[in-house]
Amino acid sequence: MTLPKLQIALDQTDLKSALDVAKNVSGFVDIIEVGTILAFGGGMESVRCLRQLYPNHILVCDLKTTDGGAILAKMAFNAGANWLTVSAAAHIATIEACKKVADDFKGEIQIELYGHWTFDDAKAWRKLGIKQAIYHRSRDAELAGIGWGKDDLVKMRQLSDLGLELSITGGIIPEDIHLFAGIKTKAFIAGRALASENGKQTAQALREQIAKYW
Amino acid sequence: MTLPKLQIALDQTDLKSALDVAKNVSGFVDIIEVGTILAFGGGMESVRCLRQLYPNHILVCDLKTTDGGAILAKMAFNAGANWLTVSAAAHIATIEACKKVADDFKGEIQIELYGHWTFDDAKAWRKLGIKQAIYHRSRDAELAGIGWGKDDLVKMRQLSDLGLELSITGGIIPEDIHLFAGIKTKAFIAGRALASENGKQTAQALREQIAKYW
């Protein structure tokens, strides 16, 4: 199993602030994500700008695409994204449309696991050739004090067994990493933890824990 | 029952093209929507600009908010939106966060009915005081040739009975209007049909059908 990567989610409301954060953390993350908040705040210009500044990072565009798949996917990949997020709640025709565009750009689709998705859905995504999903505590659920539960970990293992590589997010701290050992983990995604003053130390602590359990 | 309104969805990929369409149709629609495609293409600047140009229209920001509810809602309402769309797949904590911000701005939340939502979800939305939902054929489902079915109409009536006012969308043409008679319809949303050269005639034909069945 390859070592999980580290991903920074840029969720600033404007491009200028996001570029400041990116500058601070680019040296110690593998993946830079234009979060939904930044994507709506600054538009696709945010993706274009980060692609230009960081040509060697994997660039994720977190649109949580729910409809209009082909158009949104073309916008994101044209702007320079490598990976695009698509909502688990999207119609399978939307997901298929995104996958086709991703293939044209040699990019990848990541399914965002929100709402009442089912394992039948997950099998349908795999059938389309989709290899990645994102599992998270909702930011708002986290704020409401809802933690990582046994139920989460069971579902993650089942998705992993279906062949989906998972990116895991939602207030991830180094002390959480051991919980996910044995799960096909593509990346751990952090936003505020890496954007803070101690971002570099947090990244190192995360990498140490990853090396210990993978 | 008040007469359903007409809404134009601006789903151009850039603000300039969207402004051209808005200019053509503003005289015969009640509601202008910054569609998800435009919101990602041009960022919140699109909302600010349309608010300034059309101070008397209801302005909808179609973010299909799935997470980070409070921040996205503040961005949308601060930019001048009256209504904000939130995904049915969002965690209830996200929906609640959006509702709180909407209340502060005297705005409204519209739940976008994507994914495996349930009537228990719908009751939970109503409990938060949410009054609107958007029912649609997915654009991609429509492209795949999937029409308005009996199943759609039964669900719409049930949502209507729960007290949710519905905006209905997905390739709406005047000949479809009679299907929705008796449903608490807030608005019919059209994009391409109103943006075309015959937009004004289509709007008139839609209004005639609405007047006939409401």
UniProtKB/TrEMBL annotation, chains A, B:
It is an enzyme of class 4 (lyase). Gene3D superfamilies: Aldolase class I. Keywords: Carbohydrate metabolism, Lyase. It comes from the Bacteria. GO terms for biological process: 'de novo' pyrimidine nucleobase biosynthetic process; L-ascorbic acid catabolic process. One of its GO terms (molecular function) is 3-dehydro-L-gulonate-6-phosphate decarboxylase activity. It holds the Pfam family OMPdecase. Residues 5-206 form the Orotidine 5'-phosphate decarboxylase domain. The keyword Zinc does not apply. InterPro entries: Aldolase_TIM, HPS/KGPDC, OMPdeCOase_dom, RibuloseP-bd_barrel. Its EC number is 4.1.1.85. This is 3-dehydro-L-gulonate-6-phosphate decarboxylase UlaD. It comes from Gilliamella apis. The lineage of its organism: Bacteria, Pseudomonadati, Pseudomonadota, Gammaproteobacteria, Orbales.
